Structure formats: C-alpha cells, structure tokens
C-alpha cells in the first residue's frame, strides 16, 4: 500500500526555536493533512491542504502542499512547551479510496525550557 | 458543531473475554466512520471503516469485528480477546464520500490493556 515517509522521527529543541518537519511519498497525493497528538488523546487536525503549492498558516504553524504533490512540510515558529506531542502527516493518495487516509509514522517533538 | 464520543476511556480485560467499544458522533448526518489501532509510540493502523448503516469494510484480518447499527454509532467488538489486542483504539469520522478527500476527526481514544 501507500507509504508516507515522515522525518525526523524525533526532535529535541529549546523553547523559542523554530521547527521544521516533512513528509514525502513516492506517489501523488490529493490532500495533505497535519495532525498533533498529545499523550492519551486522539490526533487533532492542525492544517488541511488541498491544492499543489498551497501554503496555509494556523497561528505559529505553517504548512505547504508540495508542487510535485508528493511532499508536504510543517513549520512551527517560536516553539513553546505546549507544542510537545507527536505530529502526524496524512493524505489521500491519488489512486486510493476517497474515504481512506494514509498516515505517516509521526515526528515526536520535545521542547525544553 | 460536530462532536465525537468514545467510551470507555480505559479498559482492562482478561485474555479470552469479550470486548465492546462504542463511538458516537453528533452534529452531522451519514458520516464516514473509522476504527484505528495505535500501538505504543507507533502510527495509526486502520482496522475498519463504514460509509453507511450496516456497511463495514475490514482492512486487516484480525480478532475484531465492527458494526454500525445506527447512522452515527460505530461499535468495535471481539468475542475473545488476545494479548495482541492491547493498544490504543481510536474512532474517527469524516463527512460523506461525495465530499471526497475530506479530513478525519478523532475521538479521545480507548486505552485497552489485556492481562
């Protein structure tokens, strides 16, 4: 099936630093989604991207849908302790069932004071 | 606004016992519904999804089953739990298929421990 390669697997950063993570695929995706999951909770949708080249912000978060439709990145500016969690990329593959999402393996973010 | 509820939040069950996890969605009609399992520190594995009442698609062979007795109710069941069924179970919903490529929205999950 479809695979999403998400990197890095984990990040340890200091409060105030900017963060960048990305997601790549060998095949084309129709949407890219970014979720954040905190311990013991379900993933929460952060940003949804629907068009190649689209750049969308949500507060300190910015995500882009790659021009090739095979990648996406998420940036977090001026990180704070509450940014801690696991960030998942997800998307609808071009050749997949419209109902189903493919998920990346997640980037675990730790923020130190 | 739409909300999704899962219960129970945590569950400890002995091997061989039955299981029933429930998920309900409010504020939308005819949603797509999904059950995922997440092993500790790992990604999400899709177990079942449903596009309507009584319509269930199974993604992986396993010891579990799903049912959708009502439009906004999705149930995950097992007749006899195995140790390997331990994990974090997540229910999710999305708008119907005719709005293709829509995000999924997750409940808070059930932590299932098998002893």
What attributes does this structure have?
heterodimer, A: 113 residues, mainly beta, 6-stranded mixed beta sheet, 5-stranded antiparallel beta sheet, 11 strands, B: 115 residues, 7-stranded mixed beta sheet, 4-stranded antiparallel beta sheet, globular
Question: Secondary-structure element sequence of chain B?
Answer: EEEEEEEEEEE
Task: Give the overall average pLDDT of chain A.
Answer: 93
Q: Looking at the structure, what is the overall shape of chain A?
A: globular
Helix content of chain B: under 10%
**Spatial separation of the terminal alpha carbons of chain B:** 38 Å
N/C terminus separation of chain A: 40 Å
Structure description:
- The complex is a heterodimer of chains A (113) and B (115).
- By secondary structure, chain A is mainly beta.
- Chain A has no helices and 11 strands.
- In chain A, the strands form 2 sheets. In chain A, strands 2, 4, 5, 9, 10 and 11 form a 6-stranded mixed beta sheet that branches. Chain A has a 5-stranded antiparallel beta sheet with strand order 1-3-8-7-6, with no helix packed on it.
- Chain A is globular.
- In chain B, the strands form 2 sheets. In chain B, strands 2, 4, 5, 6, 9, 10 and 11 form a 7-stranded mixed beta sheet that branches. A 4-stranded antiparallel beta sheet of chain B has the order 1-3-8-7, with no helix packed on it.
- In chain B, strand 4 (32-38) and strand 5 (44-52) form a beta hairpin.
- By secondary structure, chain B is mainly beta.
- Chain B is globular, with a radius of gyration of 14 Å.
- Chain B starts with a strand and ends with a strand.
- At the A-B interface, strand 4, strand 5 and strand 9 of A face strand 5, strand 9 and strand 10 of B.
């Amino acid at each position: 099936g479809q695979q999403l390669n998400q990197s890095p697997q984990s990040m340890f950063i200091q409060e105030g630093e900017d963060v960048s993570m990305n997601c790549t695929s060998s095949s084309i995706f129709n949407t890219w989604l970014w979720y954040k999951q905190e311990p013991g909770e379900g993933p929460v949708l952060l940003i949804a991207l629907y068009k190649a080249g689209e750049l969308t912000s949500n507060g300190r978060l910015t995500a882009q849908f790659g021009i090739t439709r095979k990648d996406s990145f998420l940036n977090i500016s001026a990180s704070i302790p509450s940014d801690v969690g696991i960030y998942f990329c997800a998307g609808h593959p071009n050749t997949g069932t419209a109902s189903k999402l493919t998920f990346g393996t997640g980037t675990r973010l730790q923020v130190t004071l | 606004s739409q909300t999704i509820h899962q219960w129970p939040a945590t569950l400890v069950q002995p091997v061989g016992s039955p299981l029933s996890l429930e998920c309900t969605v409010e504020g939308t009609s005819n949603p797509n519904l999904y059950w995922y399992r997440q092993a500790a520190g790992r990604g999400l594995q899709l177990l079942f999804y449903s596009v309507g009442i009584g319509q269930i698609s199974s993604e992986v062979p396993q010891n579990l089953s799903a049912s959708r007795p009502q439009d906004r109710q999705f149930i995950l069941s097992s007749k006899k739990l195995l140790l390997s069924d331990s994990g974090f179970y997540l229910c999710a919903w999305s708008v119907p298929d005719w709005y293709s490529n829509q995000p999924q929205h997750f409940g808070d999950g059930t932590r299932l421990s098998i002893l």
